[in-house]
Amino acid sequence: MRNTIKITTAVLAAGALTLGLTACGSEEESGSDASGPLTVAASPVPHAEILNFVKDNLAEKAGLDLEVKEVTDYVTPNTSTEDGSVDANYFQTQAYLDDFNKKNGTHIVPAGDVHLEPLGLYSEKVKAADELKSGATIAIPNDTINEGRALQLLAANKIITIKDGVGFEATPSDVTGNPKKLKFKELEAAQTPRALADVDAAVVNGNYAIGADLKPAEDALVLESAEGNPHANFLAVKEGNEDDPRVKKLAELLTSDEVKKFIDDKYAGSVVAAF
């Protein structure tokens, strides 16, 4: 029987308090116990769903004891991986991880790409992006990389223009053209779909969109292109644990034909396999 453990930020907050101590610990202290179950922190949708598919259908035959812990924010998975509360996490992109490591002094590294979640613009007020009225309020994620992705999405669809060269670190101050005089409401990424009733539109990460019963491939007014997209989500571990045989086994299972079929069948283009 599946034994998924749901964890909120508060439950693992204590682990984050030890971050500064463990970051400078010895290799022995930072290493994981390869003889026990592999514990992975993951966003509920689609990450934990994909992991639970592996747990229920592939892990036992492969000799992997897998424990899935659902986490609803974008901070706890990395701090918990750093301090050893969990062995790995699965929720983020390379750009987000690079920014997080830089700002928090963590030492998290990728262990294998799995899927892409296209970022989308959604609305309960209009049915097309060109129907947005002058002065409309758009909710966007407030973390560095996802905010930049949101603004790049709007720019790619000619809703705004932004300063050249800012890439995915763009902020509203980098907007150089705003013909509709849009206002930007910066929120924690998890809050953006919940804000849809209060704003004119919101740019929502794929996992939170699916969790809010939105269908990115059908409901998004505009959607990131999957082709050439650098924002694959991957399994990640603390540096030094990349060669843990349990991690290697999970990475292999997550990029199997069975998982690709599960992603294709369940998410119908709202989540795309990146392998």
TrEMBL record:
It comes from the Bacteria. It is a lipid-anchor. InterPro entries: Lipoprotein_NlpA. It holds the Pfam family Lipoprotein_9. Gene3D superfamilies: Periplasmic binding protein-like II. Keywords: Lipoprotein, Membrane, Palmitate, Signal. It is found in: Membrane. Residues 1-23 form the signal peptide. Its main location: membrane. Belongs to the nlpA lipoprotein family. This is Lipoprotein.
